[in-house]
Every structure is written in C-alpha cells, then in structure tokens.
Amino acid sequence: MNDDFLQAVVDTAIDGLILIEADGRIALFNAACEKLFGYGPEEVLGRNVSMLMPEPDHSAHDGYIRRYRDTGEKRIIGIGREVWGRRKDGTAFPFELAIGEYQRDGRQMFVGVIHDLSKYRRSEERFKQVVDTAIDGLILIDARGSVKLYNPACEKLFGYAPAEVLGRNVSMLMPEPNRSAHDGYIRHHLDTGDKRIIGIGREVLGQRKDGTVFPFELAVGSFEEDGGPMFVGVIHDLSKYRRSEERRRESEARIRLLVDSITDYAIFMMDAEGKVMTWNAGAQNLTGYSPAEAIGQPRDQYYIDSDLNIDAPSQALRIAAEKGRYVNEEWRQRKDGSRFWASVVITALRDAEGSLTGFVNITRDMTERRQAEELRDQLRQAQKMEALGQLTGGIAHDFNNLLAVIVGNLELLSDRVHDGESTRLIEQALRNASRGADLTRRLLAFGRRQKLNPARIDINAQIGGMLDMLERTLGGSISMDLRLASGSQVVEADTGELENAILNIALNARDAMQGAGHLTIRTASTYLHEPRVIASRTVPEGHYVMIGLRDTGAGMTPEVLARIFEPFFTTKDIGKGTGLGLSMVYGFIAQSGGYVEVDSQPGQGTEFRLYLPALDAGAAHLRPEQESGRRLVLCIDDNPDVRATMAALLGSLGFAVLPAATAAAALDEMRRGLPIDLVLTDIQMPGGMDGIALADRILAKKPDMPILFMSGSSEGDRLHGTRFQDVTRILNKPVRKAELAEAIKALLGE
Known about the structure:
The protein has about 750 residues and is an alpha+beta fold. It contains 23 helices and 28 strands.
C-alpha cells in the first residue's frame, strides 16, 4: 500500500483524523478536521493539540501526556470516550474520540479519530423536549421492570417525582392485582416472545402516590439496547373522558327526564329513514298513540290523507336533511281520527363526519291559537265592514237629500211644462235620478239602513218558485242541484231582497264558472250555540235557516275573499259590475238579524251560506188597518231645500203645509192649536231630538195623530218594538210624488 493511497483515505475520510507527536504537537490535520474545527492546516500543524480543547481539558492535556510517558498508563484524554472540542470561533461541540499509538522513525506518535456528536446531541435535545413536553405520559423500563425514564406528564399523572420512581420497579405505579402480576407478564414475554405485555393497546388502571386509582390507555413498544430488551410505554389519561362520559350520561338522563315530563309538546327522535326511536308523554297525549304503538313505526300515520297523497312526510324529511331544519304549520291526525293544527319543527342530526344519523321532531297543538286568530280575523273583517257601512250609509243619506230636491223639483216642473221636448228632458232627468236613487238604495242596503218590508217566508217554497227564473238567467250550460231540507223552513224577511240576494250570488257563480259548471242550492236548519259578536252587533244563539249556494268555479284567493263584501270592490272588468251586489247581500242579511259565511279556495269553487233567524211555523205577521185623517200637514226637515221641495210636492197634491226646521219648532207649531191632520218628519235631525222622539212627544198629546216618516238612510230597524211598528210608513229619499200620495192616502184614508 503506497503513500498516495493512504493520503487519499485520510483526505476523504468522513471523520476527522489527527496525528499528534509525543509532546502534543499536531503533525496531521485532515479535511474533515478542518470542517469540524474551522482551522486551516497552516494554523494548526506544529502547534499543541490543546488549542482544539476548551477548559478544563485545555490546561490539563499536557499533564495527561506526561503521566502517560512517566507511568505507561494507557489512559490519554478521551480514549474511547466522549469529549468536547473548541472551534476557531470559540464554540464548543461534543465528539467521540478514539486514539491509537504507533512508532514512526523511532518516534512515538498518537492517531486520533474524531466523530462529531453535535447532530446526535441536537436529536437528543429534541427528543428530550418532546418527552418533557408530551401531554401523554412516557415511561421507559428495562427487562427487570426498572424505570429508566419518567417524563413530567407522568409526574403529573402519578404524583411521584422522578427521584422517587427512577430505578424502582414500575409495578409501584399499579394497583392490585396488576402490581403483583407485572413481573410475570415481562417474564412471559421474554420466555415466549408473546407480544402481549400488560396493557398493550388496552385500558388499564394506575395508582397515584396518594393511593387513588385512575384509568388510562396504555400502548407499549419494545426495542433492543446494549443487547437487552427495553420497553417504552405511552400513558393516555382517561379520567377526564370518563368524567365527561359520566356527565354526558347524566346530562342525557336529565334531558330524557325533562323531555318525558313535557306533556304539551310531542318530542320524539327518528332514524334517518323516518322511523320513530323515542316517544315522550307529550307525543302520547297529543296523538293518542302509546310508545309501544309508535316506536319502530314510520310517523306517516299522524298525517292526514291529503298530505299522504302528495308524500308530505318524505318531503319534510328531505327539506330537513338539505337545509338542516323543516318548520311549518299543518294538519295532523290523532289515533281516534280527529285532526289538530300543528306547529312542526324537524331538525336533522349529523355525526362528526357530517353523515345524517336521524331527526328530532317537535310538534305542538296550535288548534286553539288558530281558532283565536281566525276569530280575530273575522272580528277585524266585521269591524271593517261595519265602518264601511257607517260611511256608505252616511254618504247615501246625504245623497238622498240632494236627490230629494232634484226629483221633487223635476216633478213640479213636469206639472208646469207641456211641450214635448221639455217633457222628454224632464223624464230623462227623472229616470237618471231614479238610477241614482237605486244606487243609494244599494248603499243603504250594505249599511243596513234600507227600508225593508219583512214578511213570513217559507225558504224552500221561495227557492222552488225561483227555479225557472234561475235556469233562464244562468243558461243551459250550468246545471243546478236542489238539496232542500225536509219540512218548512220559515223566516221573516223581505221577499224581494231575499230573491235579489240569491240571484246576485247565483250570477256571481255563473261568472266564476265562466258560463259552464254546476250550482248546488241547499237549505238546512241549524242552531247557533253561542252568540256571535260581529262588530257593533251580536247575533244571538238560536235556530237559523241556512241557504247555501256552492259553485264549481275558479274560487277566490284569501286576499279577494277578505274584500268581497266591500262596496265597489269587484274582480270583473270595467263596466261589467258595480261591486255593490254582494254588499247588498251582506247588508240585507245583517239587517234581517242573520249572518253570512263564505268558503272558497283557488280551483276549489265557492260556497255562500246565508243564515236567517228561523220562525215558529205558526207565527203570524199582522198589520192592522189605519184610521183616516184630515188635510193639514206639518212638514219637518232640517235641510231647507228638502223642506221647500216637500212643501211644494204637498201643495201640488192639494195639502196645506206647515213647515218646521227642527223638532223644537214643530212642537211650537203644535202648541199653537192649529188643526194639523198629519205630521211628515225626517228621522235624522240635529238639536238633540230626532223624528222618532218628536213623534213620541206629539202622540203623548195627540194619540190619534197620523205620523209619516222619511229618511235619507231609512231607519226602519229603529221602529221595531215601538208604537210606530205597525201604524206608520217610512218614505225613502228622494221621495217621489206618487209614493208620497200613496202613503198619505193610506194614512188618511183618501
């Protein structure tokens, strides 16, 4: 082997190679040493090797050499041991040093092999940091069970300091019977190679310094060190999880107790397919099904048939699964078949990975609230209709006063004008004034202020008599079905207004069916068990006759349904309806002491139900004859134009007129003792005394005095139950001359 080959080995060696003279001077310094110490060869060769050592080895090195020369002791610094070196920059680093001795040219030389331990030390430091900062306990034992490593997490877990544990048998950390059996586990492993050492991958118990026992999960691994087995254990404390699990179980038990104690909410869980898994007392109370009947079954049985037909149960679960929650109010069905209006909340349950595991259903009976809301809606609607009635009645009253003047003066003109063109113009004006009077009559009907002529009516007979007219009016494309109750259905109502009401509803039905469909007219005897409050009036309990008209038309939306009785509201095209037909129906029925119900849904048709108070079949309605009187008329009206017009009409009929603007003025005229034969008075008058009160005062002095009332918003209802009910008449403004003459003739017998 030549010198070139040896030099190549020295230069390419990974470990440092250094050659030292007997006096400590450096004779060789390879490239690896240059990299380790940071010196170049020229800085080191010929100098004492102690320059590469930190204190105290730097000062002690020459002593090591002298002792070796003097005694022959082989121990030179670092032979076969770990020492420290010092770099050029002054930093120290650990290395493993192996030294050999040989003779060269009669000189004693030392060869040192330097293996850098810095990276291993860094790894050891990192490992120590990992061990010391680990959350779980780390423990190292040898084949005899002696503890060799015991990290801070173990200190916290067991309560022992490292000094109390290191070197002792690990069984001290175990309760019986594992304490006594532990060494046997290790011997069994060493003898058989069986990997099952105590606690490998299983849950065991540990014992703290204070004697308390706690659960932990133990994972054990083994490795060889210095020719013998070593075991490392990772200890994961389960105490807090056990406590959490116990708290969770306690919490679940409390929740179950709470849920089971709720009696007015149905709370139950379902699996992902919708089958019931739990069933509380509230669910049993609400549905009538016991837990045994409900658990394990789909909750479809609680849905009504119409919802089952559209697969509503599956749709609800699909929405809950997609959006997290399904919220709605809908009908549900009990075991006995009865229905209730339910508030339903279905919440989806998912596991940590997001997979659907089931649903929670909370259902509450909202029937009473729904009924209360419907009653409030009905009350609000009735109050609105009442307010509209007051408004339209007042407008109609004032409008009638205007028409009274117009019609009266036109009729006075007609008596004085005889040429054809003027007569034609007057008649045309009178016809249009009559149309205006008809409009106000409809408004008064809605406001329940029209003059009614009630009579005893058998409803079945009345409808039967209208059948031909209805068939002609509706046309051949609409079939009719009469379902009339058996026996007499007798009411007291205005015959003409009742016919108009039925005809109005039938015509609306025809339009809703677009000229083709089916109309069912039925009657029934019903009983209202509780008084019904409608705005400012109360419909009393008692027997009623119901007239129902059901069509197969388009039906109405809730928004349209809420407004159908409002004056001038119509869904028809411009020019095809005034919007007063149903308003008249509403007002007529209300003025007759009844009420109206309407059921309608888009695409499902509409049914109107008119309720009128039923009469005893033997009830009689008699109107006695009136006595005749004389020809002087006391005419009272607060409107001067109306008063002047009425005076002129009376004069044209041959009567003398005594006009008065107020009730007080009329009483003054009566006190004068004039031979008054008839009193014609408006009902509504200012000053604290209206026409009815005036009539009472007059009749108190002159009981036989004929009284004739007139009003722009006829107050006929106010006469019921008074002395005037059967002995007088009311003229609706505007008063026509012929109507006035007829009324006076009836009262005076002329």
